[in-house]
Design goal:
Layout (H helix, E strand, L loop, with lengths): L1 H29 L8 H32 L5 H33 L7 H4 L3 H4 L5 H31 L7 H14 L1 H5 L18 H7 L2 H9 L14 H11 L18 E7 L4 H4 L6 H9 L1 E7 L5 H10 L13 H4 L5 H7 L3 E6 L8 H8 L5 E2 L17 H14 L6 E6 L17 H21 L7 E7 L15 H4 L3 E4 L7 E8 L3 H8 L22 E5 L2 E6 L2 E6 L4 E5 L3 H21 L1
Parallel strand pairs: 1-5, 1-6, 2-8, 3-4, 3-5
Antiparallel strand pairs: 2-7, 6-7, 9-10, 10-11, 11-12
Length: 606
């Protein structure tokens, strides 16, 4: 049994060692000119990349593990020959992927992934990035690396296979090996938490190259196949020129000197609360959420504001990047695409702001870490592991009261030499609504009331500090609760109506903004108030600009809708037609389709 256990772990960690060496070579070959890496950088790259290395090693280990079990009854010579063929194939693939990735990275700026196979429709274009010499060197390197890796396999693993014999305790050996094989689920999945293994787990730095260096390129390629689609050619309602013309007219924002100013300063501290599942019906009901309603009465309430989508991974990108959510895919799952998105946070960082992100759950869930680190430029992340174990009381992590206590402590005990933007994602109002409040008969309403009470305590404490007078607190939902209110259709505007409230001492005066808008419009509206340009946020419009076309856009499961003062259109892609329409049918139909088509064209081009 001991020989087989030693062989099991030898194979697993041989793969891990190969991947770690590959990262080292990647950094040596592709390090930016003039940048010198510290030992800490090297260590962090290897350390933060281990989760993906372990996952990929787990996948590659499944077959050898089964062969180890088979070796209990079959001759070692037979098992050895099968493993020889397996390792020759696997090590060849590992080497090919690694070398191609190293060669193409300087040209593409992201790891070799499934998108390259779209280019194989035009082989000449696919190979255009690399020179002839690079391709020759690459082929030679592949052959050499495969030879080295295979020789390493023969000495480190092959000899152990040959030395196997029939174990004394066949039953016990079989059971142990079966348990170890089943346990490969843990490194493959990344543990037993709600988040599964994804590329974002390797992200740790605001230096994007270090994040890329930590990524396992073999895992990245495999992961990308499950997410790969040719988005740019989907939903073609018009030819590209016509769609572009309609979209340009729709999102035209002429310069205007009469934009109302909502703030007392153009450089306030900003605390952005993204509230889990806060539908407008409940969030603006004083019986359920009296504190948020109080803030709305004392600050700025956007009364006709809508979520762009129905999931948190879409909602976060809509809010921070001004990028509307797609119904069939979440761009957050594509780090090579999200890193090209503009974000409110990175824009503010370029204007002297300090950034932080606070969340009571797992920041790796749905690839969030890669987005917050890579696209948003936030390296200061507080997540569930930063809290005492005694406070991780729910399935999703830390209840909002402890999260906001930590936020308050961090803001008030840190010397604030620069303006800051603190981004906060709540979680207690997520199913299964595990909260201490039991005021209402519906668990969802209790969870909203609970989070609202936490907000009230936080805001009252903040108001007593010196930070208050120069702080803007923005409350916006990540999406509405899709099962509430009961009876409303899943694609109706009612389902997507959410609160947007600006509060805090930096708000000039109470105001109700009744113009229509959606999450993607927050970026342009906020940056305009700060006197910061926002042209790169192509889907975002300034809701306070009287010359802009005011509308809200959202997508549901394979469908989309646009609504404004004049009417609403709901279009279903499965049906291939309009479900509902009020107002000017031709105008609404063209606008909504052009906006939706442009979303997918833009996604495909990133």
């Amino acid at each position: 049994m001991k020989n087989r256990l030693a062989l099991f772990f030898s194979i697993f960690f041989y793969f891990v060692l190969i991947f770690c060496i590959g990262k080292t070579v990647f950094m040596l070959v592709n390090s930016p000119a003039g940048y010198e890496f510290s030992f800490a950088d090297w260590g962090n790259v290897l350390l933060h990349g281990l989760s993906l290395d372990f996952s990929m090693s787990g996948y590659l280990m499944v077959f050898p593990a089964l062969m180890l079990i088979a070796s209990i009854w079959f001759k070692p010579e037979i098992v050895g020959k099968i493993l020889n063929v397996y390792f020759l194939i696997v090590l060849s693939l590992v080497a090919i992927i690694g070398v191609v990735d190293i060669i193409l990275y300087p040209y593409w700026g992201f790891h070799f992934d499934s998108s390259v196979f779209l280019y194989l429709k035009n082989p000449k274009g696919a190979l255009a990035s690399a020179s002839v010499w690079e391709m020759v060197i690459g082929v030679v390197a592949m052959v050499g690396i495969v030879a080295i890796l295979y020789i390493g396999y023969v000495f480190a693993i092959g000899r152990q296979v040959k030395a196997l014999s029939v174990p004394k305790r066949i039953g016990a050996t079989c059971v142990v090996l079966l348990l170890l094989t089943a346990a490969l689920f843990l490194p493959i999945r990344g543990g037993v938490t709600v988040s599964t293994m994804n590329v974002g787990k390797a992200y740790f730095s605001d230096n994007m190259f270090l994040n890329h260096a930590a990524i396992n390129p073999q895992f990245n390629l495999m992961y990308s196949f499950s997410k790969s689609e040719d988005f740019g050619n989907q939903y073609q309602f018009f030819d590209k020129q016509e769609a572009g013309r309609i979209f340009a007219e729709l999102n035209n924002q002429p310069p205007c000197d009469s934009i109302p100013q909502l703030l007392t300063t153009n450089r306030p501290n900003i605390i952005l609360f993204m509230l889990e599942s806060f539908s407008a019906d409940v969030a603006l009901n004083p019986q359920i959420a009296p504190n948020l309603c109080r803030m709305a009465g004392q600050g700025v309430l956007f009364s006709n504001f809508y979520a762009n989508s129905f999931r948190t991974d879409r909602g976060l990108v809509s809010i921070l990047s001004g990028y509307p959510g797609h119904p069939t895919v979440a761009i957050m799952k594509y780090p090579q695409k999200t890193q090209k998105l503009p974000t409110i946070t990175k824009t503010l960082k370029d204007n002297g702001y300090e950034l932080s992100f606070h969340y009571g759950g797992d920041a790796d869930f749905a690839n969030m870490r890669s987005y917050f680190v890579g696209a948003c430029g936030i390296s200061n992340i507080t997540e569930d592991e930063e809290f005492p174990l005694a406070q991780r009381l729910t399935k999703w992590g830390v209840p909002d009261e402890h999260l906001l206590d930590r936020l308050y402590s961090d803001l008030t005990t840190t010397q604030q030499d620069k303006p800051f933007m603190a981004t906060v994602l709540t979680l207690s109002s997520h199913e299964p609504f595990d909260v201490s409040t039991k005021k209402f008969g519906e668990p969802f309403l209790n969870s909203i009331a609970y989070t609202d009470s936490c907000i009230g305590v936080f805001m009252d404490k903040l108001k007593a500090t010196d930070l208050w007078s120069n702080t803007l607190v923005v409350f916006v939902a990540d999406h509405a609760m899709q099962s509430y209110p009961k009876g409303a259709e899943s694609n109706s505007p009612h389902r997507f109506h959410i609160p947007l409230v600006w509060a805090g001492g930096a708000v000039k005066q109470p105001l109700v903004v009744s113009d229509y808008g959606s999450q993607n419009d927050l970026a342009a509206t906020l940056l305009s108030q700060l006197k910061i340009g926002h042209k790169e946020f192509i889907f975002s419009k300034d809701m306070m600009n009287p010359l802009a076309d005011k509308f809200a856009f959202y997508s549901y499961v394979n469908g989309f809708s646009m609504t404004d003062r004049a009417g609403t259109i709901v279009y279903d892609n499965d049906k291939g037609g309009i479900l509902k329409i009020t107002g000017n049918k031709d105008m609404m139909d063209k606008k909504a389709k052009a906006f939706f088509q442009t979303m997918y064209s833009d996604l495909g081009s990133r």
